[in-house]
Amino acid sequence: MYRSRNLGWFNLLALAGLLLGALALPIRVPVALAAGPSSVTIAGDLQSELGCSGNWQADCAATHLTTDAVDDVWQGTWTVPAGNWQYKAALNDAWTESYGLHAGSDNIALNLGASTSVKFYYDNKTHWITDNKNSVIAVVAGSFQSELGCIKDALPADWQPDCLRSWLQDVDGDGTYTFETTALPAGTYEGKVALNENWDVNYGQGGTPGGANIAFTVPVNNAKVSFSYNATSHVLTILAGHAADNNVEWDGLRHDSRDTLYRTPGGAVPAGTPVTLRFRTFHNDATSVKLRLYDLNAGAQSVVPMSIAASNVSCFQAGLESERCDFWAATLPNGTPNNYWYRFIVSDGTKTAYYADNTSALDGGLGAPS
């Protein structure tokens, strides 16, 4: 979740006889992910029932989960006696790093009315630790799973309800289970939801038990595909690429007042020189972008609609090579010497985001959304 920030305005000068060149800023390269843990322990007040010498022992091998290279998820199954238990996942045989309810610090309650076989799961990518009694174990099975690394009989395989590489997770506990990937090549695929790692219970179109497969199309290689499963209605929603879905995706928003890709010409310009401002969004993510312009001479602001100048093109940013973007533009005539301040209003259906200079000095460069 992003926190709102008090953002300022970008500055645009139109002064007779003054022209400042644009200054390109370096691009940050994402830091590589850390290696996974050497062990994951189900640690809690149930351990003495499962072969440990005591409880809350982070280093007890008897309750170690096993890493599954095919599923890319840590797993383990034990018969747990009836009772009201609590547990969490301890990494590397210590309490230095541990995860509980909603991938946080609280213990997870496990209440059993009878002795029960319980399977525990831990995903180090999301830090979700859960079990098949507290959570629905839902997998999106379909014709795309071989692209994710699912295997059967040592060969790439599709329609595998027990392949957790497409595991739908409800980390925040709101009843909506989600999975995202950028690993699929362009093409048309089908999928549906299977529960409990088998086909006994599955849901297709409209949440119908055993219903028809749900088709979706990935527009370009490595476009983001989002799967969302409602555990009450059993409806699976699949969004491939970016779409008008009442959600402005902040990662796609960008304007750099010092980069001529976004502002041409850069810096202060002679009066009468038109200035083109551009703003970037993910391809098809925004339904409109507007420029909020404050005219210092007039002491008033106006809202200028922007139009798409380039669609479905490179995002021109390290880390977004797999994405496609749209660039929106508006040209200001700047007929007289003036000082303008501007920010952007980005809409996707019912949702709106704002993008502006976020430096205390209001000296331009990259901005930030709010």
TrEMBL record:
Short name of one Pfam family: X25_BaPul_like
InterPro entries noted in UniProt: Glyco_hydro_13_lg-like_dom (IPR004185), Ig-like_fold (IPR013783), Ig_E-set (IPR014756), X25_BaPul-like (IPR054409)
Amylopullulanase X25 domain sequence ranges: 40-129, 138-235
MF terms (GO), sorted A to Z: hydrolase activity, hydrolyzing O-glycosyl compounds
GO biological process: carbohydrate metabolic process
Name of the protein: Alpha-amylase
